[in-house]
Inverse folding.
């Protein structure tokens, strides 16, 4: 279905104006790029009476990054900006690379980081790396703001903790240590415009060549980003690059996932490539750490 | 044997210019004249057109793949404000179909639906929004029937359940056919007894779709005063749609005019009439206003008309030196829900096993089977892509068994000019061996095959295709194509020809051919095409026929014009009429060009002042052949183009993903009319062929729902996946062809999948025989041999 049903369109210029609209309008959807929203509208999956376009609000387009102080990325920062920002690519490469894998160039010019998070699709590219970087996010509504961990934001397939009248103001990335390595990887059928079959970020904190701490977050294998409990247990205290440990870590991740079969891949294949991605990313980190 | 070789292969060139090949317009790489309009979005396609008082039609489609229609209540839709009319199957009692004698498609389903997405009713309203909303108000009562989606089980399903997809087709068998050229079983037994090899395989070519960018659309304007219909449609065969409209609407053909604006791709998928053509015409005749209908992408998939999937069992014999002895081919081909081109495609697959290698004996037994899946149609490489996929893999299997390399075995068997197949198909011209050797040399094939590290591979495949069909889809002896040239001072040259530019560049190529013979500039030739009323007759764009067939018609029309102009020029120059040449807007004596020449416009003016208008026509009908039996007339062509492709791949040992690094292609397409366009055809073919090899497949749920009717889920190869492509047009000239040209748009799609499959075998030892070669299949193989990372 290519035809849009009628709706009222609002484009607030300030955050306060936006929060006021969100507080007063019922039956609304926030447009933060629209690359998923427009599809849902055309497919008649949703029929909102009001569309509130927040992309022009200065507070949602702020970007700050400083040595030693991490980064703050406004919610309506485009995927393309995150892909091409040299500062982000240097300090948070896994996140920058993940942002560069969303859709195609046109989608990345329109789509935003807040949109990718708020759409909360199980195969979304950016959540796993943001979680690995211990990112937080500021949620704003009329009368107050709150800061939450990105890991707690998405609760299910297209579900999250955003309350009525609330929007994502920004994403806060803490400064990573020099001994922290984060890698992003994905499996897809082609090199562009893909919905990932599986995606994954792995973080390893090293003390010399010993793994002090680790994280593994997987996308497209559950209704929300799946944070592995077993992979860190397997990795902690081991030497980076130990092939026996890598094999065990891959098996551990595979034991935790319960993916579905769909048009893109069977559940069996997804389980297979969860193991493959763990092995690949850990080997990449080992090579980088040398 | 007394064969009737219409075109002998010899130096029998048509005139001096063909002999010397001193062409000025043919062979020029002219950028497409329609290119700037297309890339800037200014080109008006059918869906962009608008007429005063125009209304919009939308189609209600079945959510079920097989069901009886008990009742349709559209009273609420009719009551809706802005709704003008509703149509159902009752309004269309006559079936349509491209092949007249097997036509069984219903414009709107009458008593039952046989596939998901089948049109059931249509609404006409003042706006598209109202039409869409009104669809929800139509209440269709269905009684669900059991569904069969697997053609291999369809016959058994019919026998066990007693449920038939078409009541007049027992066993759900749409058609079956067999051909036997030689005692194949005995020959294969002898082959083995004499130290040769027989390779066997079960292959599957899957269902893929053309995925043209422009969706089908139709705009009908019925003049209620004159009772005449004008339809603008996305159609690559206006003549056949013209016939079907006349039949379904019960109107004389003379009262119907079809105009085809430029098409945004067709690839065979627009080689049929569509539901939109019929419903817009009917609505317009009933309400007296223009009516437009534009498909959504899901409707493009629902209309189907993609590639016929085929389950193929092959046995092929090779003697101990590697010569092919015989081919045995058993096939179950999937028709989908309706016939469309089906019977033609079935016999094409049989015919296509006889080339491009010398094949002394061949046997075929095939069934075309109905299933509750999308109707299949004419897909680029029609009937050739299926057997070629299997047989090029078998060439490699045989080479391995015989200890030969893939190039040697192909060179040994490749056909040469003047070859007559066992089925009496005649190949007047072939530079296939040159294409094979050139591609191999250009990528250093022989030093790479079998020698690359694990995970990297190289694979070769050959292909070919017809350059037109010798027979029409209905019995007729009229010319297959007609061209008319009008020359006058005010408009220079206007060329009329009904051939359809579907994006392949026919308009450009036709202008170049006319300009060559008339001696004018291609850019100055105005081409009037794609209209059943204001241009001349042409069968349509299919079977890679346009360049060859229109080429002859255009050449003859232009030569007829020259016959009138040459004497005038000769008189002015003071030489004999027979010694006049023409080129670059100048008539000249071929013996004394510098001294005796005259401006082209001056001659045209003198002719018109003395004689009046200068209008000439030319026509073409392909030669027929004697001694054809067993349905073997399908596949006959005036000539054939050949190609070789070599794929180099890297297999991701973590995921099984196959990445194509490079494709090296060398093609024998005769004399290219516009080399740049030919290269574009090859690049486009490779992009499509890669999709067929690796990604594309229309997939169905058990209940017959098409699971991926969108580009979200039906994956095409993207720009980032396109490898380095190295093409070379080998030196070639087919004297049977008007300007030495052969096809270049359908042959090059055929080798791509098997080249990639052969390369994957070279890379990891996985002999897959089933499209598409998904990463899951590759990874499962890698796991089974313990080679995954």
């Amino acid at each position: 279905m290519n035809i849009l049903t009628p709706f009222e369109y609002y484009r607030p210029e300030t955050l306060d104006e936006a929060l006021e609209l969100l507080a007063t309008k019922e039956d609304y959807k926030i447009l933060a790029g629209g690359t998923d929203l427009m599809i849902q509208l055309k497919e008649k999956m949703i029929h909102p009476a009001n569309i509130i376009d927040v992309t022009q609000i200065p507070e949602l387009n702020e970007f700050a990054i400083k040595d030693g102080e991490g980064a703050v990325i406004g919610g309506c920062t485009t995927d393309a900006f995150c892909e091409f920002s040299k500062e982000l690519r240097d300090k948070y490469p896994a996140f920058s690379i993940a942002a560069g894998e969303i859709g195609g160039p046109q989608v990345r010019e329109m789509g935003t980081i807040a949109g990718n998070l708020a759409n909360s699709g199980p195969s979304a590219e950016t959540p796993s790396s943001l979680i690995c970087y211990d990112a937080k996010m500021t949620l704003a509504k009329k009368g107050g703001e709150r800061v939450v961990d990105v890991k707690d934001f998405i609760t299910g397939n297209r579900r999250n903790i955003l309350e009525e009248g609330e929007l994502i103001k920004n994403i806060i990335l803490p400064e990573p240590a020099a001994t922290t390595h984060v890698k992003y990887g994905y499996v897809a059928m082609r090199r562009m415009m893909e919905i990932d079959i599986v995606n994954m970020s792995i973080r390893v904190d090293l003390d010399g060549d010993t793994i002090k701490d680790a994280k593994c977050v997987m996308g497209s294998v559950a209704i929300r980003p799946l944070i592995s409990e077993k992979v860190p247990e397997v990795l902690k205290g081991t030497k980076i690059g130990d092939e026996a440990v890598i094999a065990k870590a891959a098996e551990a991740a595979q034991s935790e996932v319960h993916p579905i079969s769909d048009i893109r891949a069977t559940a069996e294949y997804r389980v297979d490539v969860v193991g493959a991605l763990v092995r690949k990313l850990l080997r990449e980190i080992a090579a980088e750490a040398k | 044997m007394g064969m009737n070789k219409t075109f002998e292969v010899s130096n029998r060139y048509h005139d001096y210019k063909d002999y010397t090949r001193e062409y000025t317009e043919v062979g020029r790489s002219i950028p497409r004249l329609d290119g700037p309009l297309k890339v800037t979005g200014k080109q008006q396609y059918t869906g962009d057109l608008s007429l005063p008082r125009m209304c919009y039609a939308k189609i209600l489609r079945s959510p079920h793949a097989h069901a009886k229609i008990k009742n349709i209540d559209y009273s609420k839709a009719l009551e809706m404000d802005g709704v003008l009319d509703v149509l159902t199957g009752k309004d269309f009692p006559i079936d349509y179909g491209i092949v007249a004698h097997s036509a069984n498609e219903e414009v709107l389903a009458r008593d039952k639906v046989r596939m998901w997405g089948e049109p059931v009713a249509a609404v006409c309203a003042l706006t598209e929004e109202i039409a869409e909303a009104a669809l929800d108000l139509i209440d269709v009562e269905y009684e669900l029937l059991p569904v069969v989606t697997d053609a291999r089980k369809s016959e058994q399903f019919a026998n066990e359940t007693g449920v038939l997809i078409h009541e007049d087709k027992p066993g759900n068998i749409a058609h079956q056919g067999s051909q036997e050229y030689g005692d194949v079983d005995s020959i294969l037994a002898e082959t083995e007894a004499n130290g040769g090899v027989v390779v066997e395989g079960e292959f599957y070519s899957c269902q893929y779709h053309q995925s043209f960018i422009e969706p089908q659309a139709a705009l009908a304007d019925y003049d209620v005063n004159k009772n005449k219909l004008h339809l603008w449609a996305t159609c690559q065969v206006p003549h056949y749609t013209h016939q079907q409209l006349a039949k379904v609407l019960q109107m004389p053909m003379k009262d119907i005019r079809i105009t085809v604006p430029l098409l945004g791709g067709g690839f065979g998928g627009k080689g049929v009439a569509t539901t939109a053509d019929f419903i817009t015409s009917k609505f317009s005749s009933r309400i007296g206003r223009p009516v437009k209908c534009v498909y959504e992408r899901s409707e493009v998939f629902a209309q189907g008309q993609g590639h016929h999937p085929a389950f193929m069992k092959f046995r092929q014999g090779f003697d101990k030196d590697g010569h092919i002895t015989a081919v045995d081919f058993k096939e179950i081909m999937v028709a989908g829900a309706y016939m469309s081109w089906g019977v033609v495609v079935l016999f094409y697959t049989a015919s296509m096993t006889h080339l491009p290698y010398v094949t002394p004996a061949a046997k075929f037994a095939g069934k075309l089977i109905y299933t509750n899946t999308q109707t299949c149609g004419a897909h680029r490489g029609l009937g050739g892509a299926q057997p070629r996929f299997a047989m090029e893999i078998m060439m490699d299997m045989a080479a391995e068994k015989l200890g030969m390399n893939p190039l040697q075995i192909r060179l040994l068997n490749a056909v040469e000019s003047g070859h007559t197949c066992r089925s009496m198909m005649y190949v007047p011209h072939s530079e296939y061996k040159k294409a094979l050797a050139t591609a191999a040399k250009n990528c250093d094939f022989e030093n790479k095959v079998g020698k690359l590290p694990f995970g990297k591979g190289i694979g070769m495949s050959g292909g070919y295709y017809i350059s037109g069909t010798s027979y029409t889809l209905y019995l007729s002896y009229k010319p297959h194509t007609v061209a008319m040239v009008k020359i006058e001072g005010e408009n220079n040259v206007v060329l009329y020809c009904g051939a359809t530019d579907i994006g392949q560049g026919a308009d450009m190529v036709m202008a170049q051919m006319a300009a060559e013979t008339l001696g004018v500039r291609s850019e100055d030739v105005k081409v009037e095409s794609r209209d059943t009323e204001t241009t001349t007759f042409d069968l349509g764009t299919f079977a890679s026929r346009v360049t060859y067939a229109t080429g002859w018609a255009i050449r003859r029309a232009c030569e007829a014009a020259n016959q009138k102009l040459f004497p005038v020029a000769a008189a002015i120059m003071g030489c004999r009429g027979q010694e006049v040449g023409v080129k670059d807007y100048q008539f000249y004596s071929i013996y004394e060009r510098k001294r005796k020449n005259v401006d082209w416009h001056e001659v045209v003016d003198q002719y018109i002042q003395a004689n009046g208008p200068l209008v000439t026509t030319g026509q073409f009908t392909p030669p027929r052949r004697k001694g054809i039996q067993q349905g073997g007339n399908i596949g006959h062509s005036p000539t054939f183009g050949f190609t070789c492709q070599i794929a180099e791949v890297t297999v991701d040992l973590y995921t099984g993903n196959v990445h194509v690094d490079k494709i090296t292609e060398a093609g024998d397409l005769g004399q290219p009319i516009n080399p740049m366009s030919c290269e574009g055809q090859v690049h486009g073919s490779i992009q499509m062929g890669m999709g067929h090899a690796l990604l594309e497949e229309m997939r169905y749920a058990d209940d017959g729902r098409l699971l991926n009717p969108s580009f979200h889920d039906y994956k095409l190869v993207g720009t980032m996946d396109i490898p380095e492509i190295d093409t070379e047009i080998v030196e070639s000239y087919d004297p049977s062809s008007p300007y030495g040209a052969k096809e270049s748009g359908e042959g090059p799609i055929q080798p791509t999948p098997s080249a990639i499959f052969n390369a994957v075998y070279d890379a990891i030892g996985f002999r897959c025989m089933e499209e598409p070669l998904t990463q899951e299949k590759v990874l499962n193989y890698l796991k089974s041999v313990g080679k995954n990372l």
Remarks:
- The CA atoms of residues 32 and 39 of chain B lie 11 Å apart.
